[in-house]
Recover the amino acids of this structure.
């Protein structure tokens, strides 16, 4: 079931949520600009590849353009396709405004980044040889 909206209306303008959504869309548009091969190259170079992070298996794609540990942060702005982006941004829009309203903009940004870093580390821990 895909939610269409939440029932917790606020008069709060979710600036941080809007900025995060804008950043995600901008990164996706930049990737898409380079066509399918360029798109894939950026996924390998800026997305989290657990085997690159853990050094447990040889890489199958291009080498990361940044240190593998930095992809823990960049990966949270990478999406594998348009539907992936749309669904993630839809859920962020529906729930992010309420969380931002409760935490405040600064703490919400920290929460967003910590959740993204935590998700990347759990992914790498559960699939350390994934290429």
């Amino acid at each position: 079931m895909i939610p269409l909206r939440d029932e917790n209306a606020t008069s709060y303008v979710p600036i941080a949520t809007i900025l995060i959504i804008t950043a995600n869309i901008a990164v996706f548009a930049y990737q898409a600009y380079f066509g399918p091969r360029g798109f894939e190259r950026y996924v390998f170079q800026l997305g989290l590849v657990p085997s690159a992070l853990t050094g447990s298996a040889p890489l199958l794609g291009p080498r990361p353009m940044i240190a593998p540990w930095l992809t823990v942060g960049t990966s949270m702005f990478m999406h594998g396709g348009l539907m992936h982006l749309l669904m993630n941004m839809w859920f962020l829009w529906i729930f992010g405004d309420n969380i931002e309203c409760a935490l405040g903009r600064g703490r919400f940004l920290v929460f967003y980044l910590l959740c993204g870093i935590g998700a990347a580390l759990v992914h790498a821990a559960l699939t350390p040889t994934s290429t």
Summary: The mean pLDDT is 88. The two ends are 31 Å apart (CA to CA).
